[in-house]
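Write out the 3D structure for:
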Amino acid sequence: MRRLTAVPLGLFTVGTAAVAYGAGIERRSPRLRKVEVPVLPPGSSPLRVLHLSDAHLTPGQTWKRDWIRGLAELEPDLVINTGDSIAHVDAVPVFLDAIAPLLERPGAFVFGSNDYHAPTFKNPVRYLLPDDGDRPHGSELPWRELRAGMAAAGWLDLTNARGYLKADGRQIELVGVDDPHIQLDNYDEVRGIADPGVLITLGVTHSPEPRVLSPMAADGCALILAGHTHGGQLRVPLYGALVTNCDLDRARARGLSRFNSAWLHVSAGLGTSPWAPVRFACPPEATLLTLVAGK
């Protein structure tokens, strides 16, 4: 009997320790990833792109605000924010303060569902089951103020939109959609062949749904940036993400991969829902992408 009861007790202890580590240490230990992407025309000099996503910032997270502010020291040529920046009705000033030094750089953004609505409690088991299409929402968040703060600094709003900006003095084309996770995307509204006269055309979306990624790649977006997955948030060593919370396969839940003719970068993001404040084997992150000439 002792041997039979000792095993569950041991598993319980290990499980409790893992949860404590994920909630108390790992989720508060952001890191910067550096990735090189061979995507520019031959002979091009490098372009440095800072990819931010899924901050899920709340007013009390001063450690996260300060870490984001410190990213300005990287002096990126371009900043892309793929959404879910806030998670509280009073978080807009905190987030804008966090990115204030980065707002001095060229940038662009899209929104995620948690920019529009506060997160609500969900049974975690739902994430392991087939998607039933239900998207419960909390109260409306001040997304208009969030948009105004970024747009006022000159960042490009890519909510079902396309446009141009200069990064490192070179012309960039960008095309983006509103959050596909809550069916707000309308790629047909912005569909078009990539401009051959620019350095590169980038696709931007919050949720990396293949129904959006495929036409972006077909239209000539050389690199597509997305977030939403949190990299799986809970990962099993040697197995990877358990789920992606979208139709993208688990193998591409975070990091750089190929998607048809395009490169795809999915950020594991900087935060979590306030209702699920834990990460395991998947630390919060921002990524500095160095775009270089292809071979």
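The helical segments are 2-24, 62-70, 92-98, 113-116, 143-152, 210-218.
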